[in-house]
């Protein structure tokens, strides 16, 4: 046996080195289909913000908003879109997603990640159809609810699917396909809206109905997809899990990784009542950071407000009516750039570095925007070119920083923190908290903007300061750590170790894993030492 084991810690670190595998076509297909799920989410975000600004749509469903909008056409007005029913059209989707993600969690655990993705696709297809045919506000909202269910299921299963199927050393980049495709979805939606806006009076129907395209693609793709090995092990189908693992990794030598999966699954079986185990002391760090903190902060960073605001700002720069399009295409491309940067560096520089760097960049951008708006905006006069340029640059810097930090990491970090026993339950809470805050920010933002004016940006800057401190103090670095070994980071963390060690079950879990490790790892080592 090569290299004896000293103490328990090294034994665990030792197993990851023996994971083998290369990137296979099978794995690439899995990534493509999985990440289409993100594009649906993005398409929907982009389309709804565009459609709610289309005149034909407003005349048909929200005549009073249209009247207010036409009255204030040339003013730099903070309040013209402040209508609670219109906001409900947007948020009903998030509320549906929020409720349905718990049903999705059950399905993800019992029937696997893949089935959940397919159910989401079907629901999405139906929602697109109902929306495209909408004759009144009730139908619109019904369609949105169906889309919301689709998103609840998709967002529950896709990040898990990608995290589990990825080799651990590129897990960050693979998981971020979800964010990248979300951004691409937003960008595509912006471009489509630009053209459908010119088709009167039914252009908006086309925009909403096109969501059926990606939904079909996902469903068909999922028919050919493997279930993740983690999920098969969880359902007790070990032989099949092993076959899938060999296929996805493109090698027969998957002993080390398979052992890790099996052990994690046995530990998971020993724990009943997954939502209850979220509350146990040993899982406190995952609950606070992964399930509550990060998803809430992702929405409270003020990204949505910037996306909403940019058309108004660009309009006052004298871009005229196509302003809204330009601004959304500019911000949309910035998000894509951010996601690409993040994919390249996330497994090298690490998650913490990105959070902290972007925090600084976002705070400074927000302050610049607030100062300029406080001095120059809302007096009905146009901004000078110089001031305008500074604003545009500040907004782009903010968006691109979000695009490589809170945007993608807000999905990546929670999905890698949870141990298998509660990964599915944990991911549900993540989606739920995320959608709850998205809906809350969406419902309150227009009203807040109307009353606080430029103060909104100071508020967001302050929130980002809090978020950054939270990350600096509480989040350990997870890059390059195999997913079933993440829990050890908390055991070494200056603050969390005091809490996780209090849990009576934690010690047992700990020793059990320590004891099981060296034998299996030794077997794997002696097996692979002649390679």
TrEMBL record:
GO cellular-component term (any): plasma membrane
Cell compartments where the protein resides: Membrane
One Pfam family per UniProt: Sugar_tr
Record membrane topology: Multi-pass membrane protein
The organism's place on the tree of life at top rank: Eukaryota
CDD domains linked: MFS_STP
Keyword field: Membrane, Sugar transport, Symport, Transmembrane, Transmembrane helix, Transport
SUPFAM superfamilies in the record: MFS general substrate transporter
GO molecular function, one term: symporter activity
Protein name as catalogued: Major facilitator superfamily (MFS) profile domain-containing protein
Species per Swiss-Prot/TrEMBL record: Oryza barthii
